[in-house]
Write a structure and sequence with these properties.
Blueprint lengths: L12 H15 L1 H9 L7 H23 L4
């Protein structure tokens, strides 16, 4: 994927650089490259289950806080 930013008329170099930077951020390219920099192992079934239980616990606590705000 290539990203091009050409100067428009009297546009300053700083503005051109900012525009290019925003284009790169919108594509999500840097985020993808940072993720690819390090190999991440796939989580095993045990870890997936533990994370799901924790998520469910947080959700129940937040639901209670939503209805009983004085807790």
């Amino acid at each position: 994927m290539t990203i091009h930013a050409h100067k428009h008329g009297d546009e300053s170099n700083d503005r051109l650089q900012q525009r290019f930077k925003s284009q790169v951020q919108k594509t999500g390219l840097m985020k993808l490259l940072r993720q690819r920099a390090h190999h991440a192992r796939k989580p095993n079934k045990r870890l997936i289950r533990i994370k799901a239980l924790k998520r469910e616990e947080f959700r129940t606590v937040n639901r209670q806080k939503k209805f009983y705000s004085n807790m």
